Amino acid sequence: MKLTILMPVYNEEATLRQVVERVLATKGEKEVILVDDGSSDSTPEILRELDAAHDEIEVRLHAENAGKGAALATALKSFTGDVVLIQDADLEYDPADYPALLKPIYDGIADVVYGSRFLGGSYGRVHLYHHYLGNRALTMISNVVTNLNLTDMETCYKVFTADIARKLDLRSKSFAVEPEITCKISKMNARIYEVPVSYAGRDYSAGKKIRPIDGIYAVLSILRWGLFH
User: Fold this and answer.
1) Distance between CA 169 and CA 171 in Å, rounded?
2) Residues 156-186: b if buried by 16+ CB within 10 A, e if exposed
């Protein structure tokens, strides 16, 4: 099967080349769609270099910063793979976990796979406790609304069959896209699996972008997409 990797990018000049190298080093046929979301650093120039150097890479550019959800919506317009995987452009998530993420779909038992940071991956950075509590609280609220028993709704690593990916029709512009995706797949009668993944969380000094206000937006997104759509 052909794998499409969707990668939203915003001001990631310090990590972008290394992440792309790791993605391209994974086995199998793939395309990598990178969407620059109005970066103000050297990210656009790096993307153009990568695009010119690798046939697997396609680059899309936003003139202004619109948010992770907007970047994913742009990437979803042109994918051609049989399976779609979301990859952040930092170094928090390791493409070495792709085989575990893809196995339930390739085995024909799953339509969607989430990579959970809380199921015991091969490593996990001892990190920000308040973020951990926020992630667990948002996952619990999402589970109550969707009637799923996920351990990590906010994870970056979400994998879909092409049929599921085409039905997402993402509307959230910001990080609120994570609960939007979860609420929507909960209504598709999709077979959803979780697998443990490694996590090397970064702090704000290293470029972490999510803020406490995004937690409020996530709750509103859960209510909007879980109860009213």
Assistant:
1) 6
2) bbbbbbbebbeebebbbbbbbbbbbbbbbbb
Strands 158-161 and 112-116, bridge-based pairing: antiparallel
Q: Give me the pLDDT at residue 188, please.
A: 96
Distance CA 185, CA 190 (A): 6
Task: Write the CA distances from 217 to 36, 110, 142, 146, 147, integer angstroms.
Answer: 22, 29, 13, 17, 20
Locate 32 and state its tokens: 């990598």
Give pLDDT, residue 136. 92
User: Any idea what the Cα angle at residue 10 is, between residues 178 and 96, rounded to 5°?
Assistant: 65
- What superfamily does domain 3-227 belong to in CATH? Spore Coat Polysaccharide Biosynthesis Protein SpsA; Chain A (3.90.550.10)
Query: Of 90, 143, 147, 145, which Cα lies nearest the Cα of 118?
Result: 143
- Going from N- to C-terminal start, the domains of the chain cover 3-227
The per-residue pLDDT for 51 is 97
The pTM is what? Answer: 0.92
- Does residue 92 sit in helix, strand or coil? coil
* pLDDT profile of the chain (229 residues), mean per 10: 97 97 98 98 97 98 96 97 97 96 98 94 75 90 97 97 97 95 96 96 61 87 92
Residue corresponding to tokens 């990916």? 165
